[in-house]
Structure formats: structure tokens, C-alpha cells
Amino acid sequence: MERPPCVSIFLVLCVFIQSSANGQSPGLEPVGRRSRVVETKEALQETETRFLLFKEETDKGCQIRLNHPDTLEQCGFNSSLPLVMIIHGWSVDGFLENWIGQMVAALKSQLAQTVNVGLADWLTLAYRHYTVAVRNTRLVGQEVAALIQWLEESAQFSRSKVHLIGYSLGAHVSGFAGSYMGGKHKIGRITGLDAAGPLFEGSSPSDRLSPDDANFVDAIHTFTREHMGLSVGIKQPIAHYDFYPNGGYFQPGCHFLELYKHITKHGLYAITKTIKCSHERSVHLFIDSLLHPSRQSTAYQCGDMGSFSQGLCLSCQKGRCNTMGYHIRQERQGKKHKRLFLVTRPQSPFKVYHYQFKIQFINQLKKPTEPTFTMTLLGTKEENQKITITLDEEITSNKTYSFLITLDVDIGELIMIKFKWENGAVWTNVWNTVQTIIPWSQEPLYSGLVVKTIKVKAGETQQRMTFCSENTDGLQLHPSQEKTFVRCDVNSTKLKRKIR
Ligand SMILES: *[C@@H]1O[C@H](CO)[C@@H](O)[C@H](O)[C@H]1NC(C)=O
Ligand SMILES: *[C@@H]1O[C@H](CO)[C@@H](O)[C@H](O)[C@H]1NC(C)=O
Ligand SMILES: *[C@@H]1O[C@H](CO)[C@@H](O)[C@H](O)[C@H]1NC(C)=O
């Protein structure tokens, strides 16, 4: 088993896709177009999909049936309240996954406004070859649309109150449901949780979830790391707001190292577990937004994760930031997709606090240096110990470095930074080497490295701050020596008084 396990599952996927292509159709034309003849609304009397409503947060669900108004009453459907409907994805074992119960419970117990909570159970159509399940997504979409149309006709329910939450293939089912609704008005909202990638990536908007399918569409992308041209979750933006936590490739706590632990414990089944970890993280991020109303994660519009990691995108101007999850600000500006990035913790609560640090160095060393620093941040609420920073590049001359720092806890307003040059030993060696090669008798011993200012921008509060060395003399940074930086922008004296 030398091959990375992740590749293996992609092989499995490839085999699925190819075998069914060989067996059933001459090629891979767009899947949606080949779906079975669209049944008209009138013809659809029964649905293959089971629609369940949940009265309590722990019940097993009560089945509502198309054209049976009595089932609506039995199951406690209240047409004056919104309907949140969960739609699961491809099934590898034919069972409903555990997260569904967790999401039902969170929707039932955590919202200020009561909502009808439903599930579209399409297991009989999802527990198939991947390509077959993909083909079934249109049919299930039609059935969901038929149900909503029937609710409009028989219960004076408004489609604008519908929120579909679809995971993996379920995200595309939601999209099809939205597009099959017809008429002038769209359903209220669709949330796509790591919408499936294979056979959807690069397809036209009508063949996958797209912003056209509802008044508001949001998507969370968590496992888009590509192998052999395939990624489990779709990479391209498909919503009004597309969130890419941790870049969207894979998620913290889901690392391959974990896989080996899983394999010893669960055997080969671990492979699906590892795939599920990052893929299903989208679901848990969403549930987290329901469970922790006071710890909502903010995400920021950015071109790519590289720029985000440099802290360059922490702006909320002109609607550039938004809240990830259920409580997203539902505003649409322009037609363009917005790609938003954020960092998360490896487990719930997932929220972190984002900061951009811009450190201005003046390097008078003759030799470039590649230092490691640690910082201790003191805030009005908490002190955060030792954050290690390794600059990716050498400090060669005068330069300002910008990078992203994230904290798990809210330290309040930042008031002091303790800054330390850590790899002194390494540096001393360099120093000795240089000294022996070039006799520097004229130079002061530590002409060294100077930190001029540290500028900080807090993403969550949008506050900007500037820090300077506490003593104006001795600006040089010496290996292993700690320097204290305090606020030196206009309001610093006022702030100091507030603290003391
Ligand atoms: C439906 O919800 C509304 C709004 O919360 C409430 O006033 C009404 O009593 C509910 N109807 C039933 C039958 O529970
Ligand atoms: C860096 O800045 C210092 C002080 O502003 C200046 O003396 C020095 O010449 C600068 N070095 C370079 C390479 O620009
Ligand atoms: C300084 O404080 C005033 C009033 O407290 C505030 O309006 C202003 O935005 C602050 N300026 C900065 C740079 O923080």
C-alpha cells in the first residue's frame, strides 16, 4: 500500500465511472441530458423519494406523501413556517448517515424561529453505481419540485420559504429541484455542502447546482484536492457565495497520517472514512453555525488561498466578507460568484480569529537571514502564548512582510506584542562563519536586524493598529532576546489608560 490512500479511492471512482460507461452507454456525454423522459407534474402520482418531516429533534421522521393532504396534518406540517429540507448524497452502504440526525436536531433546537424540518430520503436511487446515482439526481430533483408545487397548491405554502440543504450529490439534486420549479418565482435558498465534483465539474450551469436555481445560493467547498483529474467535491464556484475553508482542498484534522491510525482500527473501510472526513466537514461546519450562534465564522473574499495566507484579504468593505453557514447575510451584489476564504480549527467550534501582521524589517546584515520568530500577543481579554512564524523567504534587505495569523480564542483588543528571534543558535553559527571569512573589525557587533513597525489588521473587528518598540533605543533584534512592542498609533495613550 505505497500509493497514497486518497489516490486509491479515486481509482475506485474512476473504475465506477468507466465501468458503467462501458456497460451502459457509448460514452460520457453530459449525464443530465440522458436522464429519463421528464415526467410531467400531472403524471407524477407517487415519488420514489421518501419525504420525511421531523416533529421532535430526535424522532425518526414522519412520511409525507404527495397528494395525501392527511399526511401533512399527521406529520405536523405548518405552512406558515419555512421548510428546511435536507438532501443526502451518494450512498456507499445504503444507510442514512449519522450527520443527518445531528443536523435535524440542530435545526429543531437551535433556531430562534421554528421551522419545518424535512429530509428527502432517496437512498434507493443513491445506493447505486456512482454514474447511475448521478443520473438519478435529476429525477429526485423533479420529485422534490413536485412536492413543493403540491405544497403550494394544497397548503398555500410559498416556495420562497423553502431552503434546501444538499450534501455531495444532494447539492445537485437541490439545484435540479430549483430549476424544475418553473414559473416566475424561485425557491428561497439552496445550500450546497461540498457538492459532488465527478461528472459535474466544468458542466454547464443547467447541469449542476448554480446561482440560477434559487433566490440565494451558498456553497461550502471542503474536499477539492485533485487526483488524476478528479476531485470529490466540485472546485469551481457554483453559488452566489462560495466558501473555501482552509483553501477547500482538504481539512485540518483529516490528514493522511490519521488514515494510518484508521486503517489499523477499521481496515480498508478507513479509506471511505478518510474521504468522508474532509468531504463531510462541510456538513459539520454548517451544523457548527447552528450550534454556536455566538461563534460565527467570518470568511473573506479573495483570489486564492496563497494571497489569503499572506493576510491580504481581510477586508469587509463593499460586502467582501460574510458569515459562513446557516446565518449567512443573504445579499446579492452583482452577478459574479464570490469566492470566500477562511481558516478553521480542526474541530467544533471551528471559528478562528484572523489577523494580518505586517512587519517592517530593516536588515543591515551582509548575509541574508531566514529567521524564525515567536510572538506573544496580549489582548484586553487574554494573552496568547508563543505563535511561531517562519518566513518562507530570506530577509535580504529592507522589506515589509505580510502574513496571516489565526487565533482560536478571542483575546479582545490587541494591546501589546512580545517579539522574539528564536533561531539564535543557527544565526550565531552564520555569524561566526561570516566573521571568520570576512574580518569585520569596523562593524558594530550586532549591526543586525531591526524591526521598525508591526502593523496589525484584525479581520473580525476590522480594526487597524500599529505597534512600535517600547524603547526607541536599541531597536536591533538580538537572537533569543525578547522585545516588547506597544501601540503607537493615535489612540494608544488613551488605550493604555483604559487598560491600567
Ligand atoms: C404555525 O406557526 C405559526 C407561527 O409560529 C403559529 O402561530 C401557529 O399556531 C402554527 N400553527 C399550528 C397549527 O401549529
Ligand atoms: C535600509 O534602511 C535603512 C534605514 O532606513 C538604510 O540606512 C539602509 O541603507 C537601507 N538599506 C537598503 C538596502 O535599502
Ligand atoms: C481613535 O478614537 C476615536 C474615538 O475613540 C475613534 O473615532 C477613531 O476611529 C480612533 N482612531 C483609530 C485610528 O483607532
From TrEMBL:
Signal peptide annotation: 1-23
Any one Gene Ontology cellular component term annotated for this protein: high-density lipoprotein particle
InterPro entries for the chain: AB_hydrolase_fold, Lipase, Lipase_hep, Lipase_LIPH, Lipase_N, PLAT/LH2_dom, PLAT/LH2_dom_sf, TAG_lipase
PLAT domain: residues covered: 353-487
Catalytic activity entry: 1,2,3-tri-(9Z-octadecenoyl)-glycerol + H2O = 2,3-di-(9Z)-octadecenoyl-sn-glycerol + (9Z)-octadecenoate + H(+); a triacylglycerol + H2O = a diacylglycerol + a fatty acid + H(+); 1,3-di-(9Z-octadecenoyl)-glycerol + H2O = 3-(9Z-octadecenoyl)-sn-glycerol + (9Z)-octadecenoate + H(+); 1,2-di-(9Z-octadecenoyl)-sn-glycerol + H2O = 2-(9Z-octadecenoyl)-glycerol + (9Z)-octadecenoate + H(+)
Annotated Ca(2+) binding sites: 208, 213
GO biological process: cholesterol homeostasis; cholesterol metabolic process; cholesterol transport; fatty acid biosynthetic process; high-density lipoprotein particle remodeling; low-density lipoprotein particle remodeling; triglyceride catabolic process; triglyceride homeostasis
Active site residues according to the UniProt entry: 168 (nucleophile), 194 (charge relay system), 279 (charge relay system)
Keywords for this protein: Calcium, Glycoprotein, HDL, Heparin-binding, Hydrolase, Lipid degradation, Lipid metabolism, Metal-binding, Secreted, Signal
Summary of subunit composition and partner proteins: Homodimer.
Name of the protein in question: Hepatic triacylglycerol lipase
Protein's organism: Mustela putorius furo
